[in-house]
Each structure stands twice: as structure tokens, then as C-alpha cells.
Amino acid sequence: MRRVCGRMKELDEVYADTWVRRDANLGEMTYADYLRSAHWAQVRQKAVSRPNYLKCEFCDSTEIELHHTSYKWILTKHELRAVISLCRAHHQEVHDLAKGSGVSVRIATNTLRAKFKPDHRKKNRVL
Fold first, then answer.
1. Quick check: 19 and 8 in contact, CB under 8 A?
2. How far apart are CA 106 and CA 92, in angstroms?
3. Which residue in 13, 113, 30, 120 sits closest to 70, CA to CA?
4. Can you tell me whether residue 68 is helix, strand or coil?
5. Relative to the CA of 71, which of 16, 23, 55, 85 has its CA 20 to 30 Å away?
6. Helix pair 88-101, 105-116: axis angle to 10 deg
7. Residue 67's pLDDT is what?
8. Structural domain boundaries of the chain?
9. Mean pLDDT over residues 52-78, rounded?
10. Given its phi and psi angles, is residue 8 left (phi above 0), alpha (psi -120 to 50 degrees) or beta?
11. Average pLDDT, stretch 45-52?
């Protein structure tokens, strides 16, 4: 992760940034452990109880997975800011684009969001 004045940059830019930030924020915990944690269970429950998380943000499929667009907020009370719902195919497409083009998962998510939902900047999220 590139540092600015000794701090991590605010936003992930390249592919490696995504994973460096995740590992730094998780500390000794693995991502698999995190996904089994009480914290993630609470975040997940809060997300799936809200109408804007019940379908894929790109195609409206109701068979969804939750996707972190960035790990900046992981393990904080603000984590839902960076969690969206995607179907399995679009979730994989985001990660394939990020890895294939060397951009962060955040940038790949925003690229595909603009492709599939050109009006994506409209306020429609419940946090």
C-alpha cells in the first residue's frame, strides 16, 4: 500500500492495494476467520434486512452474495459503506476485471457499475 505522510492512502488504486489494506485491517485474523466472525454476521444480517441489498446491483438477480468494494471500513461500524450485493457471475466479473487490469477492486466495481447501471449515481442506498 502506498503511504502518504506515513498513512495509507485513502482509496485503493491498484490491485495489490485491495489485499494489503484488507490484511492490514484484519491484523492477525484471516479473511476466512473474518467471514465466520460475529462482526461479519451482524454486518450481513443488517445488509440482507434492507431492500437495496436483496438483488444484484448490476442485473437485479435475487441470488446474491455480499461484496466488499473496498476494505477501508472492514471491522468498523461503517462497513456497510463498502458492501454491495452482487450475483455470483457479477461478483466474479469484478474480481476478474480487477486482477486482469491491475486495478483495485473498488475501481473494478465502479467500472462495472457504470457499465450495467449508467444511472448509478442516483441516491438509492439505505445505510
1. no
2. 14
3. 13
4. strand
5. 55
6. 120
7. 94
8. 3-116
9. 91
10. beta
11. 90
How high is the pLDDT of residue 120?
59
Residue 114 makes CB contacts below 8 A (sequence gap 6+) with 120
Q: What angle do CA 86, 121, 87 make, to 5 degrees?
A: 5
Copy the grid coordinates of residue 73.
471500513
Please determine, for residue 46, whether its predicted confidence score (pLDDT) is greater than 50: yes
Terminal Cα distance for the chain, rounded: 28
User: What cell was used for 101?
Assistant: 487490469
The identity of residue 36, as a single letter, is R
User: Do 98 and 15 meet the contact criterion of CB atoms below 8 Å apart?
Assistant: yes
- pTM, 2 dp: 0.79
Which amino acid, 127?
L
* Mean pLDDT value across the chain: 85
Residues in the chain: 127
Provide the 3-class DSSP secondary structure of residue 65: strand
CA nearest 26: which of 41, 44, 40?
Answer: 40
- Amino acid letter, 28: E
* Residue whose grid cell is 436483496: 54
H/E stretch holding 45 reads helix 38-48
